[in-house]
Amino acid sequence: MTFLEIERKKMTLEFWSEILPWRNDPRVRIWSKTNRVVSYQEHLAWFQQRSTKLDNEPIFAYFANSTFIGMVRLDQVAKNSLEVSLIINPEYRGRGFGARILNDVCKYFVAMKSAEMKLTAVIHSENLASLALFSSSGFTKVTEQLPFVFLELNTF
After folding, report:
1. Which CATH number fits domain 6-119: 3.30.450.20, 2.30.40.10, 3.30.300.30, 3.40.630.30?
2. Is the pLDDT of residue 130 over 60?
3. CA–CA distance, 135 with 20 (Å, rounded to integer)
4. Which of 116, 104, 106 is nearest to 138 (CA)?
């Protein structure tokens, strides 16, 4: 397998529009907090509202050879906590891009965070692939409120 460099860019409305089919994929929705189908209008309206906070709560588009392969969102869920959300283009799942993208955003977070800021994730307890991915990137379980597991990045 050829090793492709990944590139991180700030999310734009154009790229956000491309994510909707990924987000509405039944294999993604089953693990989501909101597992219903999201309409195009709702999807765009959410981004337009959320884009006012991109300086403090970035959303990144990831590319390999100019192909849009993934998205990461960092949402402020508490005064001292950002929650990471990750989605991979269905055509590029299972190729190791999830780990590379998650590791990149963790490095970004560590470089930009203040000492008291935490990076967290909420994963469906039966989503073993995501639990393994986040664990391999340095996240550990903090608590569980079924059906979700709450994780935190160990930054030592």
Report:
1. 3.40.630.30
2. yes
3. 27
4. 106
Average pLDDT, the chain: 93
CB atoms inside a 10 Å sphere around CB 93: 18
Q: State the distance between the two ends of the chain, measured CA to CA, in whole angstroms.
A: 33
What single letter denotes the amino acid at residue 93? R
CA distances from 104 to 17, 47, 137, 143 (A): 23, 22, 10, 25
pLDDT at 134 over 80: yes
Q: How confident is the model at residue 3 (pLDDT cuts 50, 70, 90)?
A: low
pLDDT digits (tens, 9 = 90+) for 66-124: 999 999 999 999 999 999 999 999 999 999 999 999 999 999 999 987 778 999 999 99
**Strand 81-88 with 67-78, pairing:** antiparallel
The residue extents of the domains of the chain are: 6-119
Number of H helices, E strands in the chain: 5, 7
